[in-house]
Design brief:
With 383 residues, the chain is α/β, with parallel strands linked by helices. It is built from 15 helices and twelve strands. The longest helix is centred in the C-terminal third of the chain and has 18 residues. This is tRNA-dihydrouridine synthase.
């Protein structure tokens, strides 16, 4: 067998199958609020294949025709497959949103978010609190799957509320039983937020519990080797990448090489990073007007320059740049030949663990399937 034939055989056997969607390499971009909009997805896609999921859309506003939700649920003409993450707390509302998305031909894949650990959400019974009520979780998933028809539905969740209330195995089995095409686990509890190390052993346990659909792992994939190690140690079928690609869209090129068994590409110099950074800002400006685009770009700027010593003095200027021309001019104030910093660098959300807030009496009747109020839909993409 030739090297090319062996690679093709490897690709066929290790590709991630989500319903009719074949994903190679088996890598999924995690939705992040204000981050994974179309310009960033397009930039990441330029570096490597995979499944690129949109920013999270909240079901209620979408059903009501909210203009911002409709904009976020749009995709570029070049995006395929079109993958969207949906969040909601009421089975009927979720089903209505899915029927709209599928009926309008907007999506090829829907992912349900049950992982948000934000206090203002869980204290109203939303986000990570939903899997605590298995009958409610089942009703939401069933409504989405039935409304989706042939469009595959997946779900993402955390290990549970805290170490005393773990729900991930039950949630995974519910997803499998109700027709999800795959399930994904962020291997932290809601109490952990993004602190500490992701507990990959939970991904392995979920893989043993869920036998008929793919299991994806999420948490602490900072380098391409981390993804390979997660698959090797847990047996998961694919990986979900979130904070690791912030300011580093070329990570998907490295992931593609790693899963293909190819040598890793050389990391970019600061000059190459600056060129990508400018391209990102230009894509944002083409998607919206320059002023809001540059404001949106600030969420990315500090991550692009993280670890580069010569860039540290210009970070305040980066964060204040109002025009593309200002961003381009700052290249003259750094050492463009500076090599990429060695070692993994933690990006994105962090912070200390929390005590998870739940509604008063929430744990008294876990069999209750009553949806929380619509104010529990006030979520972000944390998962």
């Amino acid at each position: 067998m030739t090297t090319a034939e062996a690679k093709r055989e490897s690709d066929e056997t290790s590709a991630l199958q989500i319903g009719p969607l074949r994903v190679w390499p088996p890598v999924v971009l995690a939705p992040m609020a204000g981050i994974t909009n179309y310009p960033f997805r397009a930039l990441c896609r330029r570096f490597g294949a995979g499944l690129y999921v949109s920013e999270m859309i909240t079901a209620g506003p979408l059903v009501r025709g909210d203009a911002r939700s409709l904009q976020l649920s749009d995709f570029g003409a070049d995006e395929s497959p079109r993958s969207l993450q949906l969040y909601g707390v009421d089975p009927a509302t979720i089903a209505g949103a899915v029927r709209f998305l599928v009926g309008e031909g907007r999506v090829d894949h829907i992912d349900l978010n049950f992982g948000c650990p934000v206090r203002k959400v869980t204290r109203k019974g939303g986000g990570s609190a939903i899997p605590v009520k298995p009958n409610l979780l089942r009703a939401i998933v069933r409504g989405a799957v039935e409304a989706a028809g042939a469009v595959p539905v997946t779900m993402k969740f955390r290990m549970g509320i805290d170490d005393e209330l773990l729900t991930y195995l039950q949630a995974g089995v519910i997803g499998e039983e109700e027709g999800c095409a795959a399930v994904a686990l962020h291997a932290r509890t809601a109490a952990q937020l993004y602190s500490g190390a992701a507990r990959w052993e939970a991904i392995a346990a979920l893989k043993r519990a869920v036998r008929t659909i793919p299991v994806l792992g999420n948490g602490d994939i900072w380098e391409a080797d981390d993804a390979l190690r997660m698959v090797r140690e847990t047996g998961c079928d694919g990986v979900v990448v979130g904070r690791g690609c912030l300011g580093r869209p070329w990570l998907f090129r490295e992931l593609a090489a790693a899963f293909a068994g190819a040598p890793p590409p050389a990391p970019p110099s600061l000059g190459e990073v600056w060129a990508v950074m400018l391209e990102h800002a230009e894509r944002l400006c083409a998607w919206m007007s320059e002023e809001p685009a540059m404001a949106a770009f600030r969420k990315h700027a500090r991550w692009y320059t993280l670890g580069f010593h010569s860039a540290e003095p210009v970070v305040p200027k980066l964060m204040q740049a109002q025009r593309l021309a200002e961003l381009a001019a700052l290249a003259g104030e750094v050492d463009l030949a500076e090599p990429f910093p060695a070692g993994p660098i933690v990006r994105g959300k962090s912070g200390a663990p929390q005590k998870v807030a739940l509604p008063h009496g929430y744990l008294e009747d876990l069999a209750d399937a009553t949806p929380p109020g619509p104010d529990a839909e006030d979520a972000d993409s944390g998962g």
